[in-house]
């Protein structure tokens, strides 16, 4: 295994982690911004207002996006295991 193969594996790993975490992080960002705008417009500064909707939507997103996350990580692990099997590592 040379440096180019190691770089490819590392870049594929970073990309897989970013893709797998993107749905949850995106939903958390959007919900956080919506709640922040709502609080700014209404002058309501309740701490549970920021926490409860965000955590509920994160759990819903995890339930919906789990097949996508599984597929992304499975393709990465299949690639790495094929490299190990063929002596690439």
Q: How would you describe what is shown here?
A:
- Keywords: Bacterial flagellum, Cell membrane, Cell projection, Cilium, Flagellum, Membrane, Transmembrane, Transmembrane helix.
- The chain has helices spanning 3-42, 47-85.
- It has one domain (3-76).
- The chain is mainly alpha-helical and 89 residues long.
- The mean pLDDT is 91.
Q: How many beta-strand segments?
A: 0
Order of helices and strands: HH
Secondary structure tally, helices: 2
Percent of residues in beta strands: under 5%
Biggest pleated sheet: none
Shape: elongated
Overall radius of gyration: 19 Å
In whole angstroms, the N-to-C terminal distance is 6 Å
Fraction of residues in helix: over 70%
Q: Could you report the average pLDDT, rounded to the nearest whole number?
A: 91
Structural class: mainly alpha
**Low-confidence parts, pLDDT < 50 over ≥5 residues?**
none
Number of domains: 1
Keywords: Bacterial flagellum, Cell membrane, Cell projection, Cilium, Flagellum, Membrane, Transmembrane, Transmembrane helix
GO biological process, one term: protein secretion
Transmembrane segments: 15-39, 51-70
Membrane topology: Multi-pass membrane protein
Notable characteristics:
single chain; 89% helix; 2 helices; 89 residues; mainly alpha; elongated
């Amino acid at each position: 295994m040379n440096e180019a193969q190691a770089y490819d594996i590392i870049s594929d790993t970073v990309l897989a982690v970013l893709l797998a975490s993107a749905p949850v992080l995106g939903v958390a960002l959007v919900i956080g911004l919506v709640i922040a705008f709502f609080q700014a417009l209404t002058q309501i500064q309740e701490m549970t207002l920021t926490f409860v909707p965000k955590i509920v939507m994160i759990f819903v997103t995890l339930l919906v996006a789990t097949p996508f996350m599984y597929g992304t990580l499975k393709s990465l692990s299949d690639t790495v295991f094929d490299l190990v099997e063929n002596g690439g590592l």
